Amino acid sequence: MALSGKDLLSGVVVPAVTPIGGHGVPDFAAGSGYFDALAAVGVKKIMLLGTNGEGPLFDTQSIGQFLADAVRQWKRRVPGGTVVVNVSAAGTRESLLRAEVAAEAGSDALVLSPPFYFQHNERDIAAHYHAARTASLPVIAYNTPRYASPLVAGSVRALAEMPHIVGVKDSSGDAAVLAQWLEVARRRPDFGVSQGAEQYLYDALTAGADGITPGIANIAPRVAVELVAAHRGDDDVRAARAQERIVRLMKIHSVRPGVPVVKATLALRGLCPADLAPPLRILDDDETADLRRFLSTVEHELIGTSDG
Length: 308
Known about the structure:
Helix content is 41%, strand content 11%. By secondary structure, the protein is of the alpha/beta class.
């Protein structure tokens, strides 16, 4: 039985990094310790091959074994655990091919942005999502204007009428856009809404979002779990403090923005190789020194810390 959008997106979904093995391809075993550390702090849901997962940088032929291993091993580690897979690509056909691979691997749902590279209008975007009705899994819309055409009011209305679109990960950071998705959820009670913009996690939960999908949870999953727990417990003070801690942790991207600094952190903690899919580059010596200095100020927040 397919999970509802609320089932898929409530609480914390970690947009996981993709460990890369010795042959330069995704390899779950290379990051086994990282996934263990996520599970140890109570993470139950992961999203694979998203932005933090370098998804579009891996060709479709290279992801099948990784996804099969990841789904099997995550659900072994986390009874009742959930795995959703980003299948976004530059074109609809490639996205559908990736969707087939994700379904064969046993994924619970697909995550799909508008096609990237070209700018697309609302009719193009609606056709793209309509085509995804042929997939065998429910689809979560992925609004990521930094990388693909944005999902604006007309697109939101179109997607709201598609039963196979069961939720949204909104990384726009736009409160008005989030409000439009929350209105969809009011009309469709099983429709899930997750906030991906890390500066606004607490605001989104307060507004009615079901969950959060913060990239910073890769290196500090416990604070994301605490934010959701505090919100659910109506502890506004504790939730606000958790949001402040997340904003402070986001300063890690002053070393270098994006996944290179996340993977470097995990590598320094012995959890996952620092290797990246080209053309992304690992940190140089000066950047690594800067990263070490920053991490020393937030050591107690980091993944793998035994006292938390």
